[in-house]
Amino acid sequence: MSVNWNWCFVLFFLIFSTPFSFLVDARSQSFDYPTAKLSTKWVNSPSAPHSVAFTDGSTVRAILLRGTFGPRYACGFFCNGACDTYLFAVFIVQTNSASSIVAPAIGFPQVVWAANRNNPVRINATLELTSPWSTNTNGKSVVGLTLTDTGNLVLFNKKNAAVWQSFDHPTDSLVPGQKLVEGKKLTASVSTTNWKDGGLFSLSVTKKGLFASIESNNTPVPYY
Rounded to an integer, what distance in angstroms lies between the CA atom of residue 82 and that of residue 78? Predict the structure, then answer.
């Protein structure tokens, strides 16, 4: 059975059992794994490769990771708190020289982007990389997914050109090299364990400039 994440930009399929396509195996996945091909699937399982629990209550299960040794960008499943639900997110983690994610006493995972954060998934959900991830990618020869050194999650075509990228659809954070353009908005999550975009603060760009606002049920109230 598949479930549509119903996100206007990115389309994921959550499948709870499948005998088809390629499933990532813990024994075959290498370190420094920034790119995936179409029809790849990942299971949000506690036994999944690159699954690390942290003392702050967070857990990451990375499916892509770029680089080695130090703070690096990764993407995959993330939870914090009761961990009965998970985000598909891009996050910063600490890695060793073999690109293994380590769990230091400080330097916990930091989420910088999330897909459809109002509708997280559960244990054993399966993420499948398919060509129609976006309403704007049909017919554009999407062949894979990659995570860049700057933390940009990119769908690319046969010419390695970007067809869709997470930098164009920020959620609550910006990272170095990313731009907040007119018409886009950063909205805080409700809390560190409730990721819905109903937080108190927002930051947006309009024709009149940059506005920091307090969100309300009606019109946001600018305070800067």
Answer: 12
| Burial status of residue 77 (CB atoms within 10 A of its CB: 0-12, 13-18, 19 or more) | buried
Query: Residue 20 is which amino acid?
Result: F
CA 32 – CA 214 distance, rounded (Å)? 40
Report yes or no on whether pTM surpasses 0.85. no
97: tokens are: 């020289």
Could you count the other beta carbons within 10 Å of the beta carbon of residue 48? 19
Closest residue by Cα to residue 100 from 68, 145, 132? 68
- Find the length of the chain: 224
d(CA 20, CA 198): 38
Q: How far apart are CA 43 and CA 16, in angstroms?
A: 8
> Over the stretch 184-209, which tens digit does the pLDDT of each residue have?
999 999 988 899 988 899 999 999 99
